[in-house]
Specification:
The structure is a single chain. This protein has 476 residues and is α+β, with helices and mostly antiparallel strands. It is built from seven helices and 34 strands.
């Protein structure tokens, strides 16, 4: 059947394509193919095209296509090695959402790494295999994780988009239409999106810098409001604005909650913003929002001391995801919780505030020295089973259970991960700690989907809200 369709396509080409170069119909090659001087396998090879290459179709003869290569050279290729496409068809490209995205030799984490691509660089899609996308990587076929890229698909001109506004508190964005499908992201109330098409009460939308997904049409309404993508709003009191895109850079000033700054660029996980005096500064993307509306936590005054422990650090990287180091993510999460607790009037002590190694003994000593009302150690999980998932709350002594229960009761209200429950944990920082203490595992970096989710700003905002609220409830 496929052969018949292809022959019919060739007949159409013969009827409508003149014997001059036309940009209307092209051949896309799925493997290396010889380009010959004549439509015969016995003729001279004058060039080669590789997987992902395209050529303009000029003419056809029997089972051969006469094509013009991007170099200007013309020759014949066998039709069985080419896929026809037109300029009006969708051409899919992707952009990495992380710095130095690993490129692998095959579709899976078990394949060797052949290189990396920079954040925001654009690459043509060759094919898709499950959760992996194939690209032409410097003449080689490379594979990248689909959950760590954004699609920049150029849709047909006939697909006109409509501006829509999210009307529910948090709207799940899914991979496919239907509540049984994977959640890609969550959009807060007031977010402005582009509705590309609808299908059985589901809307295919473009959101947050070109990402694509499906949402329930019920929670969208037409709007004339423009998305304020050019500004960030500070989420926490005394947020540090730094001279460069790293926690090691000097603090230029501190910003107050709800202050807005114009975005001048982005480097990794840091926004470059413009200050009122014209200078540039950097702010971490996990302590700001680009959403058009914001929700803020109540400002509670506790008068208590909390020690927050970012797991691992320095030469101890902790769990490894495809692109994630646990030590970096725990620091990011812990710093955000700290900002929220400080905003509520809590004195917060950090066992580490940068990428340095701190021994387990030092962490418990800090808890003892400050007579902490609560000690909370932040971690992300890993196992050999890539399907393992969910969050876990660990305690050691019975006296620690109230703190564990208070935090656990909050976790999961806004996040979609599996609840693995409250469990006994024989961890050094718990069994050698005289203060109320818990250790939290906030998702599996060994699970490709969860690695994607826990890195998202939406998840980070929600999970840090939940942990902060749980701690505050315990302190009251």
């Amino acid at each position: 059947m496929k052969r018949l369709i292809f022959i019919l396509s060739l007949l159409l080409i013969a009827l409508f394509i003149p014997h001059t170069t036309s940009a209307a119909t092209r051949a896309l090659f799925e493997q290396t193919v010889n380009v010959r001087s004549e439509p015969s396998i016995s003729s001279t090879i004058i060039a080669q095209v590789h997987q992902g290459n395209k050529a303009t179709i000029i003419d056809s003869q029997d089972n051969w296509l006469y094509v013009e290569l991007p170099t200007g050279k013309k020759g014949w290729v066998a039709t069985s090695f080419a896929m026809l496409m037109t300029d009006s068809q969708t051409e899919q490209t992707i952009r990495s959402t992380v710095a130095d995205l690993q490129v692998r030799a095959g579709p899976g984490k078990e394949h060797k790494i052949i290189g990396s691509i920079s954040q925001e660089s654009e690459w043509n899609v060759l094919k898709i295999d499950g959760d992996w996308i194939s690209i032409d990587y410097n003449g080689q076929t490379g594979w990248v994780a689909s959950w760590l890229v954004n699609s920049t698909t150029q849709d047909n001109a006939n697909n006109s988009s409509i501006k829509k506004e999210v009307t529910t508190r948090l709207l799940n964005v899914r991979e496919m239409p239907g509540t049984e499908n994977r959640i890609l992201s969550q959009l807060p109330s007031g977010s402005v999106v582009e509705e590309i098409k609808t299908e059985n009460n589901w809307s295919f939308i473009r959101y947050e810098n070109g990402q694509l997904g499906w949402v329930d049409t019920t929670y969208l309404q037409n709007t004339n409001k423009k998305e304020e993508a050019g500004f960030v709003t500070i989420l926490y009191h005394a947020t540090n604005l730094r001279s460069g895109p790293a926690l090691s850079n000097d603090v230029i000033k501190q910003a107050s909650v709800q202050e807005r700054y114009q975005i001048d660029g982005k480097e990794g996980e840091w926004y470059r913003i413009l200050l009122d005096d014209g200078r540039s500064a950097y702010v971490a993307d996990w302590v700001v929002s680009t959403a058009s509306r914001l929700t803020t936590s109540p400002k509670l005054k506790s008068g208590k001391t909390v020690v927050l422990d970012a797991g691992h650090g320095g030469f101890d990287s902790g769990a490894l995801g495809i692109t994630t180091l646990e030590k970096i993510l725990t620091l990011k999460t812990t710093n955000t919780i700290a900002e929220k607790l400080k905003n509520a009037g809590v004195e917060v002590i950090l066992t580490r505030d940068d990428d340095t190694f701190i021994s387990l003994a030092q962490r418990t000593i800090i808890s003892e020295q400050h007579q902490a009302d609560a000690f909370v150690s932040i971690h992300f999980d890993s196992t050999v089973d890539p399907t393992a998932n969910g969050t876990t709350t660990y305690y050691y002594e019975e006296a620690d259970k109230p703190l564990a229960s208070s935090i656990h009761a909050e976790i999961g209200d806004e996040t979609s991960l599996r609840d693995r429950g409250i469990r006994f944990g024989n961890y050094y920082v718990l069994r050698n700690n005289q203060q109320p203490s818990v250790l939290l595992e906030l998702g599996f970096l060994s699970n490709p989907w969860e690695e994607q989710l826990v890195n998202k700003s939406t998840y980070q905002n929600n999970i840090t809200n939940e942990i902060s609220n749980g701690i505050l409830a315990f302190l009251q």
